[in-house]
């Protein structure tokens, strides 16, 4: 904020009048005008006016008084306050975060491959905005951006019913499917790069006249050059398997036997590929061929089950306590609805 006057004197009365006027302005107000020969121009954050300092600088012909303002903006991620030049605004939703937090958030999602459409980190964002590709490119390194584009392309192929990946681990080319009445029906696909013929539904070797459910070919049948039994499906501890739901490759090096596919969010047992979507208590590992193969101690399993039972018991207790109020409120709601419907049926006065 600059003040200029030919008389070289600051009118304090005008300054205090202008001070009270500033406090009524919206945030980041742009001020420009002239009063009593005084010209004022600049901008001010009204929230920080109490901390404004008046600075006097010398000039050759006239003095200049400046109001120095340093507005701070709060980051929703780290809750810190930073100047505007250290903040980044998401174009789509106009949410503001400090550049460092937003960069770490984007790099984490790209590194883990969790999302290809990176959403606004604010869970309460009213517009549910997403970061554009040019915004991501300005924040991350070149290698990270290349990984993001690769994940984006893989996701596009996965969701495209007319394209699929060659199942060969030494090829991984994108194959085009023929137009069919139903994309879910299996069809013969020949890779243009390695000439492998495979089924579009189960990704195994093409099996004419045989349903995919009856086809129990080992994984070596569609991994050319891999003859070791290390990769066969019949081995429970094979390091590479496919999701039983979406058929994408999953590699497991260590940890729990309860797996969740990043692509389709399907939970299953790594050893027998049985679904665990509804097995909240992990009873699957108490009996059968996968008994005691979960990979956790008995104490941790009991603690997990106690937590799950506690959550369900808490909801049940809450429902039990609220049931009398629900019983009392139900007749009142029904009476109100009946009165409203009766009022709508009454003829209008003429």
TrEMBL record:
Pathway: Protein modification; protein ubiquitination. It is found in: Membrane. It catalyses: [E2 ubiquitin-conjugating enzyme]-S-ubiquitinyl-L-cysteine + [acceptor protein]-L-lysine = [E2 ubiquitin-conjugating enzyme]-L-cysteine + [acceptor protein]-N(6)-ubiquitinyl-L-lysine. The gene is RNF144A. Belongs to the RBR family. RNF144 subfamily. The keyword Cell membrane does not apply. Residues 71-294, 75-121 form the RING-type domain. The chain crosses the membrane at residues 308-334. This is RBR-type E3 ubiquitin transferase. InterPro entries: E3_UB_ligase_RBR, IBR_dom, TRIAD_supradom, Znf_RING, Znf_RING/FYVE/PHD, Znf_RING_CS. Pfam families: IBR, IBR_1.
């Amino acid at each position: 904020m600059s003040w200029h006057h030919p008389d070289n004197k600051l009118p304090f009365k005008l300054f205090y009048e202008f001070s009270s006027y500033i406090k009524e302005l919206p945030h980041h107000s742009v001020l420009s005008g002239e009063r009593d020969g005084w010209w004022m121009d600049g901008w001010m954050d009204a929230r920080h006016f109490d901390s404004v300092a008046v600075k006097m600088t010398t000039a050759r012909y006239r003095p200049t008084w400046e109001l120095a303002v340093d507005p701070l903006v709060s980051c929703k991620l780290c809750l810190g306050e930073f100047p505007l030049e250290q903040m980044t605004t998401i174009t789509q939703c106009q949410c503001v975060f400090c550049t460092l937090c937003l960069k770490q958030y984007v790099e984490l999602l790209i590194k883990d491959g969790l999302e290809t459409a990176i959403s606004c980190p604010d869970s309460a964002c009213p517009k549910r905005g997403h970061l554009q590709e040019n915004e991501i490119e300005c924040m991350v390194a070149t290698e990270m951006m290349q990984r993001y584009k690769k994940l984006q392309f893989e996701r596009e192929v996965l969701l495209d019913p007319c394209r699929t990946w060659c199942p060969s681990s030494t090829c991984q080319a994108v194959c085009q499917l023929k137009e069919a009445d139903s994309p879910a029906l299996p069809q013969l696909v020949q890779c243009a790069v390695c000439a492998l013929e495979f089924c579009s539904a189960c990704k195994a070797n093409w099996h004419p006249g045989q349903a995919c459910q009856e086809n129990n070919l080992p994984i070596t049948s569609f991994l050319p050059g891999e003859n070791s039994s290390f990769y066969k499906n019949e081995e429970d501890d094979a390091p590479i398997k496919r999701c039983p739901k979406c058929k994408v490759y999953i590699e497991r090096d260590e940890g729990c036997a309860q797996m969740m596919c990043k692509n389709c969010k399907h939970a299953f047992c790594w050893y027998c590929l049985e679904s665990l979507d509804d097995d909240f208590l992990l009873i699957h590992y108490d009996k059968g061929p996968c008994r005691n193969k979960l990979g956790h101690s008995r104490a941790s399993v009991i603690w997990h089950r106690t937590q799950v039972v506690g959550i369900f018991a808490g909801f049940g207790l809450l429902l039990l306590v609220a049931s009398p109020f629900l019983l009392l409120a139900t007749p009142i709601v029904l009476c109100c609805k009946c009165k409203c419907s009766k009022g709508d049926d009454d003829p209008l006065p003429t």
